[in-house]
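Intended use. Records such as the Helix-turn-helix domain-containing protein entry shown here are meant for training and evaluating sequence-to-structure methods. They are not intended to support clinical decisions.
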Amino acid sequence: MPIEGEWARADVFRVLRDVCAKDNLDWPHIAETYKFDLALLDDPQGIVSIPAWHGVFEYAAERLGNDAIMFDLFNNVEIGCFSIFDYLFACAPTLREACQAWAKFMPIRTNAYELTFKETETGAYVEWPILHGRGEWRQNMFARIGWATQQIELALDMAVPPILIEIAAAEPESQSNFQRKYQGRLKFGAAANRISFPKTLLGQPLRRNDPNLYAIIMNSATSELNHFGQFESPLSRIANEVAASLTQGATTLPAIANKLGMSQRAVQRLLEKEGTSFRKLNEEIRRSAAERYLKSTDMPMKEIAYLLGFSELSTFSRAVKSWFGVSPRKVRDMSGFRQWQRQSLSAPPPDADNGQTNTVLEPDVRMSAFEE
């Protein structure tokens, strides 16, 4: 098992393969295209790179001709498909402890990001970060939301629990049963990828909890955490810090190294080992974020420039033209931009995010809607 770079567990491809068994997806071709060993799908400890983890979902959705299908496919998978991680949630004592377990044990699923669980005055939310510069992640996120929501439905024994789902990507052109089920509680073009809960649900006992069984589950998860948790990706730490620092205009090497508690040379050496440099990483994250803001939002150009850390609109415009060959306005107006930017299906799509962001209310304000 490779232990360098950003990875995610390969079993998600096995689940995708199995739920699409009748659709004749060419998995040998997919594995060759996205550069992973097909045998990893059935390896309990198999992992794949993050670009492959994202790209395969985009490829599959396009081959299936339905850009909303991942919601339904993963909202209907059986509990246990993702081994111990499923049972950490399903068998927890309460919803609060289930979410805490997700956050604590996310390193057994991927080293590319951390899952956030945060309580507010009126409720709580779990949040998946946006991975700028690691390829188009939209379909992968739809799958994760579909799966996570099903976990919540089954744990609470509710067909449609009173949750709020926010996705920082454009609404799909197709319609899924999942979208219809959560109509009015599903928001696209949000500022983050979140599922929010009213406070009244957090302490609710979950129907599958058994103290003795859960102790066994926690021991098994801890064993996996000791195994997978050692494979931290320095690139993830650096990239995520750069993305978080964009609006502060503090994405210089000295500033990022200081935030990470590392020397500048140490950061440079880590990036060199990953085949990149700080300048290239910073540029790719900005380019990826710019594409996400421009392609499907009407956010003012000045605001986008600010969010990307540009002090002048003219500097932002020159950067966009160097990245895409056209002005920011042309990128926004180009109706076929997404297809124009993507490579053919026979090769992996370029590293580009493909979502949408608008300003939304803070979590504690949004949650008040549940208590009215």
